[in-house]
Every structure is written in C-alpha cells, then in structure tokens.
Amino acid sequence: MMPMVLSIVIPAHNEEANISETVTGLIEELKKEAIAYEVIIVDDNSSDNTGSAAEALVQRYPGVVVLRRRPPKGFGRAVRDGLAAATGDAVSIVMGDLSDDPKDVIRCFRKIEEGYDCVFGSRFIKGSKVKDYPPVKLFTNRMANLFIQVLFGTRVNDMTNAFKMYRSGVIKAVMPIQALYFNITVEIPLKAIIRGYSYAQIPISWYGRKSGVSKLSIKEMGRKYLFTVLYVWLEKILLDDELRNNTAAS
Fold first, then answer.
1. In order of start, what are the domains of the chain with their CATH numbers?
2. Less Cβ around it within 10 Å: N or C end of the chain?
3. CA separation (Å) from 96 to 150, 165, 218?
C-alpha cells in the first residue's frame, strides 16, 4: 500500500517574519516522522516580503509550492485556493504565524491513519496548552463555541480554531465552500459533521504571535461567523429531512 501524502495549506498575509520558521519547523517534523508531504503557501496579497520569503523556501525544499493571490484578499479565499491545489490524501490548515505546533500536525496525521475522517485541534481540553491568548478574544471564543456546541449537539469545543485536518474526500464532499474570511474555520468542520463524517478531537498547543499583526477582527467577523453557523444549521435541517424521507420511503 502506498503511504498517505499530507498536504499542508498555509494562508499567509504579511507573514514575512514568521513564514520561514513556520515551514521549516513543519518540514523538520514531517521528515523526522517519514511522512510524505506537500506544503502549499498561499501568499494572500501581502504588502511585505512574504512572497519572496516563500519563494526562497521553494528553493530549499522540493515539497513546497507557493500560490500568489490577486485581490481581493481574505483568509477564506486563501484557504479555498490552497485546498483546490492540494493533491494529498489528507489536508491540514496551518497558520503562518507560528501559533500552531508542528508536533500537533503529526499527532493529527496519526489519527487520520487510524481511520478518522477529520481531526480537530482544541486549545481548551485536558492536555492542551495556550500561551498569550488575549483575554477579550478568549471570552468571545468560549461564548461562540458554546453556542455552536449547543446548536449542533457536538462535543467539539474549539470549532473556531483554524487548525484542523481532513481526508481529501471530506473536502470534496463539503463543496462548494462559501466563506471568504475566517468564518471558513467553522463552515468546513460543521459541514463535515452534519454529513456524518467521523472525527477526533485532540489537545493542542497554541502560542500568541510574537511578530506581525493579527488579521482577525472580532467586531468585523462576528456577523460573518453567525451567518455561516446558521447557514450550515439550516443545511443540517434539510439533510435531516431528506434522510427521514428516504427512510420512510424505503
């Protein structure tokens, strides 16, 4: 049997100070674990030297690919382009700001190898580690995730976290993806859950950024998150109705 290939999508907007260390750390761990990989850096309309730093990584590592996006920018747009370019058996979304631990990517991949369709990293379960999380964002995060848990009846308690991994077939099944911004972090996993795909939740480490500026504005994104959650919830109702009708017909 051929070994699984892992695609890692890294959306990056003005991450000149972080992208090289992010990619180098990931590849070191992947090589150590003998995991076949491709790393797709999506330069999302950066105004700094992120693109040049990313291209330098292509010269160092044959498994690195760089996509240069044209305006308009948007985290979701960058993720969508990266997913469309991914060719691996599994795909992971990793931030380009050093907030995610490369060792957690390995742990997620091992769960995929066990047979899970999706693996969700949580910063808020036993064994997780969080450093320098802004208090206001933390409070908002916990309230938003509690709302999602209650609405969907799921045990996943960090749905808004971007760090997740999926089998490639799951990504195909949840298409088309609508979100253009950080709300993509909830659209994909919720669509996977309501379609019945299996998932595991693992504790992860998360580190507040040391360089650059956060791209997430809570005030600006609140309505987009809410719209996406309610949109997928409506989709869940329709899928449930279809399942009941099919069951009754049979």
1. 5-249 (3.90.550.10)
2. N
3. 31, 16, 19
Cα(76)–Cα(106) distance, integer angstroms: 24
Per DSSP, the residues of 93-123 read E--SSS-B-HHHHHHHHHHHHHT-SEEEEES
CA distances from 194 to 146, 153, 198 (A): 17, 10, 10
Which tokens in the block code for residue 155? 């045990």
- Per-residue pLDDT tens digits for 208-235: 877 666 655 666 678 999 999 999 999 9
What are 163-214's pLDDT values in tens digits?
999 999 999 999 999 999 999 999 999 999 999 999 999 999 999 877 666 6
Total-model pTM: 0.93
For residues 26 and 94, what is the distance between their CA atoms, to the nearest angstrom? 10
- Read off the DSSP letter of residue 239: H
The structure tokens listed for 65 are 């690919």
User: Would you say 132 and 211 are in contact if contact means Cβ atoms under 8 Å apart?
Assistant: no
For the CA atoms of 30, 35, 36, 41, the dihedral, rounded to the nearest 10 degrees, stands at -30
State pLDDT tens for residues 109-156.
999 999 999 999 999 999 999 999 989 889 999 999 999 999 999 999
Chain Cα centroid distance, residue 24: 19
CB-based contact 90:3 (threshold 8 Å): no
| Contact in structure between 96 and 15 (CB atoms under 8 Å) | yes
How far apart CA 91 and CA 38 sit, in angstroms, is 9
CB 79 within 8 A of CB 93: yes
CB 2 within 8 A of CB 70: no
